[in-house]
Specification:
Length: about 280
């Protein structure tokens, strides 16, 4: 019975789908997004908590968004920010640039949602900025565009200008990027090359890869040893009796599992042989 139970558990374990603990959406390639410490882009219009300042002598005012994938933003933003924004004011005189205080509009998260040709990353619980009374939520959406290949760069500037929308009180932002890695086949790894989506083998796959070569070596080495001991015919096969009983043991394992699920009485192959 112990052998039957072990065989049943082994098959159930091997057939059970393995879930990867790696940060990222299902079946998408975000390697290039994770390689960069942080990304940023400038938005030319006021939006949400980003109010354009027009101090005397200023020539231009923009909003800059900073975000990171699978890690908090390591610079500029408040601690544990997944995304933040800042006002940038430029002055012609003296070629001067001033920045406002950085505002966290979404705390670090790994909350990915994957669709056929897109995926989203949602940042919750940002910093409450009056007159808002609740923390902001920011959703980054990456949609499939096979021509939109991203590459890591020294400054991390987003290569394609995204579409940005938000609520007037600064409690909700939606940012849509074009990204080749959002395509269902990985879109060339987001690099424009031949590299496909990266994947890791599950425990079940590794066990299967090790099982069949191991069985082959076991049979060959065992047969050579028994041949050297003077065994002939069927006796050359190591554990021949166990191997001949193995199909019945496997069938008993499935019968045992089925009996437990259906609360019915189990009948083993040995019992059937005894009846015959």
């Amino acid at each position: 019975m112990a052998v039957v139970l072990h065989v049943s558990l082994l098959f159930m374990f091997l057939l059970h789908p393995c879930i990867s603990a790696n940060c990222g959406p299902l079946n998408k390639d975000i390697k290039v997004l994770k390689e960069q410490d942080y990304w940023y882009f400038e938005h030319p219009k006021p939006i949400g908590s980003c109010k354009h300042f027009k101090p005397e002598g200023s020539s231009n005012s923009t909003c800059i968004f900073y975000f990171s994938i699978c890690k908090p933003v390591p610079r500029f933003c408040p601690d544990n920010s997944g995304i933040c924004l800042v006002n940038k004011v430029s002055f012609l005189k003296g070629n001067t640039t001033l920045y406002s205080e950085f505002i966290n509009i979404g705390s670090y998260s790994q909350d990915f949602q994957s669709e056929a040709d897109s995926f989203t990353l949602v940042f919750l619980s940002g910093e409450v900025i009056p007159p808002a009374t609740k923390p902001p939520i920011t959703k980054l959406q990456f949609q499939c565009d096979r021509s939109a290949t991203w590459n890591s760069s020294s400054d991390g500037e987003v290569p394609f200008q995204p579409k940005v929308s938000g609520s007037p009180d600064g409690t909700k932002y939606t940012i849509v990027f074009d990204y080749s890695g959002a395509c269902k086949d990985g879109g060339g790894g987001g690099r424009g090359g031949d590299e496909g989506p990266t994947a890791t083998l599950g425990v079940g796959s590794i066990l299967l890869i090790l099982f069949f070569p191991g069985m082959f070596l076991y049979c060959v080495v065992g047969a050579l040893i028994r041949k050297g001991q003077g065994k002939t015919g069927k006796d050359v096969i190591p554990h021949a009796q166990f191997l001949s009983d193995l199909p019945g043991l496997i069938a008993d394992g499935f019968s045992f599992t089925l009996a437990k699920i259906t609360c019915s009485q189990m009948s083993t192959t040995q019992q059937k042989y005894d009846e015959m």
